[in-house]
Amino acid sequence: MNSLGEDCNELKRKYDACFNLWFSERFLKGDNDDSMCAPIFKVYQECVKKAMEEQKIELREIEADYSTGDYNEKPEHSKS
Fold first, then answer.
1. In a domain, 19, yes or no
2. Sites in the chain below the pLDDT cut of 70
3. Which residues contact 49 (CB under 8 A, 6 or more apart)?
4. Which GO terms describe its cellular component (predicted)?
5. Residue 50, domain extent
6. Is 66 within the bounds of a domain?
7. Which end of the chain is more exposed for a tag (fewer CB within 10 A), N or C?
8. pTM
């Protein structure tokens, strides 16, 4: 699967590869220190944020729907 932004696809592939290695070689063996992929994740995250801005996607809309655990609640700005 590609990333939200075309410019982020290579970063996503690198992060996915790092995550898969960490998960299989460390996490499944009891090591839950996830700092191994943190640097590439940070760069990838910034790329995705930039792509979201360019596509006029607001993170707070996504967070309002999912981070609270209330998946039926609409973001504040869309409530009537």
1. yes
2. 61-80
3. 59
4. cytosol; mitochondrial intermembrane space; nucleus
5. 7-55
6. no
7. C
8. 0.68
